[in-house]
């Protein structure tokens, strides 16, 4: 019995020390104390074993001892086994900054640090712009006209976008721009996402265009010339990066620039001769200035001794001789301006290099740093806005569409996708807003940008698919009345561009995060490169302490012992505690995968993807909790928080489960499962009760629906048809209408109305004639049914309306 007590005490003490990552000395105290107790109290064998273990810990754990024999041997092994980091990878790893993503790698995330990144809100000017200018711009769009009739935005909209500074949101006021925060930029794009073409047209110059590159790296002369012209729309920019053989692997660009001399107007000019072939360049057909990425060579050593000077960026006017520009690609579902750019023997002076000659060879670093912010804003904001428009339309449609004498919103088959749409929209809005807030606080979130881009555009794919299912025939019949189908068909664009989701999920999120966000791996690699044994010793044994700490935290918290303190209310606290638990499990699994697979983990993309999925879901859940903590917490929102967090944590556990099943070492997989999930999975699909509650709330005029539709275009001034506004108007009188439906249908069922009164309008008139409803109720229902029928209707066209060549029309019935 005494032996068992001592074993329990030793294990408990070690777990406490490990959880706190207290180091070798406290571990020695625990082992020595329990070992001596064993010798003195009649358990000599246990006492000897514990003291021998203490001796081993002292030799391997105390710096004064281990640096003499152990650390040099480990360092030699590490230098042989550590993966080689290429210059390209190192540039990507060093770009951007680490914030909450790094906390999740530690296994002990500091929640207060997350909450300390306060949301200062929007300025009065930003709020006014979103409320007025964005509404005007959204009201000048019609998806059908843009996609099928003009293949472009209306001229008056282009003029308005330039006049009001939409293309200069990120440009400081001193250069004529709006100088908006990242949060304001995101909310602008969310409102404009009522039209995919409009959102992309405004979003790209503010994220992936040369504007941000000029702001950060341009010479003063370049800034003074271009930034005011970009801000007011005199210059429309594009950026040429990708090509036929360089898409996701943008560093493999085969486009070249060669340093040379050329006589211009009788004067010899030092410049670059460019050959390039670019594809998929947004705004290229109408751009007046082209940002260009290419590999620069200096074979004649006109600038220095190096031949290969690396990836370099230049800014080239459209009318530069030899550049072919103006043709268009046809992006699926959305005719936003996109096209190829070619050039053969195009000469430009050195002054066109962004940042001047000092930035030669720095192009990849420049791009990675700018892309990390742009990928956090443009497509995630578009996905969030699209999600909430689709939810608003679908909730309204499901409530006014009646089958079997009830709104289809009352059917559980419709409630399930409605609730899922609402939860994903809620998560997306929280994640993109809170990440934009970190940007406003100076962060450059590299890993979160990959998470948001891939995860939120996948949410968008799910949401649009659900919306199509709910709408049925309304959405599969194209025409001016179909507000959903064109955006649905354009969704693959968001999935594919700015780093295809397959690549981002499988290679980038964990591949970059494992080194960039890990507390010690980057330090270990740096120590290897510098051949610094002391730095390696500190990093390696700190890393070892983290592994033991995460194992202890994952196990004890998995058993329900030692919950961490979290600064949330009783609704959110259980989820924050479980994110901490899964963070410890994730950190342990990440280290186990890297240690067991080494450099081959790069090729095990499915394992890397699952680890990335865990990180992604924990990040999204954290942002959702922060949004709840700082938000208004409207009636019904708690159900949405419960649904969203259970959904995300369930996905995180599923990814861990699959990781354990697929690690090459089955013993390691079983051991990790035992530590990380000692009592099995905790989170399953959200309950049906939550689904029903959420679906009811988003298909009625409720505070929750209003909150979810914030920052969407809901104006109904008559200038353009706005289905969302029309649905909202109908929902405000839904209770009155449902009472009258029940009254009239009950009378019909009892035979009080003519059997041939099959249409709602006929039953209303018959009920009025029978004195069953008042004249006011009849007038209300006539007006309402006319509006409902219009919203349920689809378009039809002339027989030959879709044939471009009238000579090819087949007349199956010539008469």
UniProtKB/TrEMBL annotation:
Signal peptide: none annotated. Pathway: Lipid metabolism; fatty acid beta-oxidation. Residues 238-337 form the Acyl-CoA oxidase/dehydrogenase middle domain. Pfam families: ACDH_C (PF09317), Acyl-CoA_dh_1 (PF00441), Acyl-CoA_dh_M (PF02770), Acyl-CoA_dh_N (PF02771). Residues 139-233 form the Acyl-CoA dehydrogenase/oxidase N-terminal domain. InterPro entries: Acyl-CoA_dehydrogenase (IPR050741), Acyl-CoA_Oxase/DH_mid-dom (IPR006091), Acyl-CoA_Oxase/DH_mid-dom_sf (IPR046373), AcylCo_DH-like_C (IPR036250), AcylCo_DH/oxidase_C (IPR009075), AcylCoA_DH/ox_N (IPR013786), AcylCoA_DH/ox_N_sf (IPR037069), AcylCoA_DH/oxidase_NM_dom_sf (IPR009100). Residues 361-501 form the Acyl-CoA dehydrogenase/oxidase C-terminal domain. Residues 515-797 form the Acyl-CoA dehydrogenase C-terminal bacterial-type domain. It comes from the Bacteria. It catalyses: a long-chain 2,3-saturated fatty acyl-CoA + oxidized [electron-transfer flavoprotein] + H(+) = a long-chain (2E)-enoyl-CoA + reduced [electron-transfer flavoprotein]; a medium-chain 2,3-saturated fatty acyl-CoA + oxidized [electron-transfer flavoprotein] + H(+) = a medium-chain (2E)-enoyl-CoA + reduced [electron-transfer flavoprotein]. The chain crosses the membrane at residues 43-65. Gene3D superfamilies: Acyl-CoA dehydrogenase/oxidase, N-terminal domain, Butyryl-CoA Dehydrogenase, subunit A, domain 2, Butyryl-CoA Dehydrogenase, subunit A, domain 3. Its cofactor is FAD. Keywords: FAD, Flavoprotein, Membrane, Oxidoreductase, Transmembrane, Transmembrane helix. The keyword DNA damage does not apply. Its EC number is 1.3.8.7, 1.3.8.8. Belongs to the acyl-CoA dehydrogenase family. This is Acyl-coenzyme A dehydrogenase. It comes from Halomonas aquatica.
